[in-house]
Amino acid sequence: MAKKPVTLDANGYRKFGIRDSVAYAAGDLGCNMSFALKGYMSLFWTQIMGMGLWYSLLLMIVQVWDAINDPLIGTIVDADKHQYKRNKFLQYIWVGSIGLIVGGACCFLPFPGAPTWAKFIIFIAGYVLWDAFYTIANVPYGSLLSLISKEPADRASLSAWRSVGSMVGNMLPMVILPFIMYNADGSLNGYKVFLAALIMGGLGFLCFQFMIKNTVIRADQDVKCNEEEAPKFNVFKAMGNFVKNRPAMGATVAAMGMFIGMQGAATAVSVTFQIYFKNTAISGLVSMFAMIPILVFTPLARKMVVKYGKKELSVVGAICSIIGGLCMFIITPNNTTLDLILYVVSQLIFNLGMGIYSTVSWAMMGDAIDYNEWKTGSREEGVVYSLHSFFRKLAQGVGPAVALVIMAGLGYVNNAVDPETGSAMIDVTLLSWEVAVNLRTLVAALYLLSAVMMFIGLGLIYNLDKKKLAQMNEELAARKQ
Predict the structure, then answer these.
(1) How far is CA 476 from CA 226, 228, 289, 367, in A?
(2) List of domains in the chain
(3) In the predicted model, what is the mean pLDDT of the chain?
């Protein structure tokens, strides 16, 4: 049977279609095969490696590297003028996809008997390596959205499908790993965690290769300010432009809120299922079930964006998440079965709002990159996205660190000792019911904080509503004629 001829657009590129969306989703699936394991770092380093509150200090230390890593790699990508065969963004992603296999596994090296100073070195070295390769892959990947298509509806489709890739990338480890990593008594098995990290890295590599092979760049990569020679790239000016870029700042505040709350809650949620609901196996299934609203909304995202606008939809989503966060405070500690039902229903409401926002969040960053060009004449994809990524990752580090300190104040940290190694550890079987109820309440508080910050970023700072976005796109198109 003869192959169906490829339909080309007016510029000679393969016409945008479902192939582009699926390929872009595969990229985020690849990122999250590695990133989803980050939710287990707190448990691994407190319960397996016995670091306790030292882990909070370690997280804050590696944020110094984040402060250098993200903007540095973003500026390198923007300033790189080398002509790569497969496009420079895709080339960086290819390199990052290989490094993530090694870097991800290095974050979970199971040496509980090592001295404390050695554990410091193991964690910092592993995290720095993983973080560097994650940024090398993730920053160019995020920048690709604005280059695959210039059409708002296409970008909304890419953003929605990226959310699908992200969701699947979180769901697979979320559902499968609890059955693999935990022992029969509800404790983690460090060696199984390490093996899982290697497997996730390999699966991520395959996803990235699929994305690279099926991605077409249709938009201009280098935008000249005039017919004369374009000015040299200035990193400090680019960072200043980012601060003045209200859409980028608004989207960043919303993303930080999402990660401070949800990443911070991740450890508390895991421990809650260990000692409150006393069922680690269903934790992934409950989280997967709570993703249903995102799955339901994703196919509708493209049409609803065209009709209502990204900002308008995302603000409604933030309000919905606030309602879900408030409902999560309804706790019936004398009936954990009823409480589990209330918990799941609250998560469904919360994730409906989160689903609305997440399906358009990356398209909003694509528009923020265009906004930078509209106001300054320079696109600066790498810097805009890398700074956005830096603040997201800062929230991902600060959230769990602060949450762990709060958890310690609520009674999570105890003075148990590993009988085989003699090292300090946290034994969840020794935690009281009062501590379990406190952690269940903390989960609700962190989810509510997440939703409130999303509303502030999207409703009060982000300023590209449907009308203003249309004006910006018209003026940018006129400049290029």
Answers:
(1) 13, 19, 42, 12
(2) 18-218+235-479 (1.20.1250.20)
(3) 79
